[in-house]
Amino acid sequence: MKTERRGALLGKQTPRRRGLAAENDTPFSEQVHLRNPEAARAYQVSLYALIPPLSLILGPLAVLLGLRARRRGRRDPNFSGGGLANAAIVLGALLTITSWAGLALMILGLRQS
Fold first, then answer.
1. Total domains, the chain
2. How are the residues of the chain apportioned to helix, strand and coil, as percentages rounded to the nearest 5?
3. What's phi and psi for 19, nearest 5 deg?
4. pTM for the structure as a whole
């Protein structure tokens, strides 16, 4: 109790904890969608590309949307979705390579039998 009183006399304020809404800055929060809609959309497409048949089309689409969002980030100094855009590019590229390679191997396997 005495330490709180001393701090109050010296003009020091105890730091306030941010509210839960302000702390929730995950890729799935509403704040990210409002600040970076292009980067969030690219990231969502790359997550939907984790479904195997859809990754043949959504993987390259995630790469293109991520590149577009990153290019916008280079022009706009207030852009803060670079992490989402980079994640969409990397995830989309990996899914594209693996899904098309898997399809090619399946086709080669069916031709041999």
1. 1
2. 75, 0, 25
3. -70, 165
4. 0.69
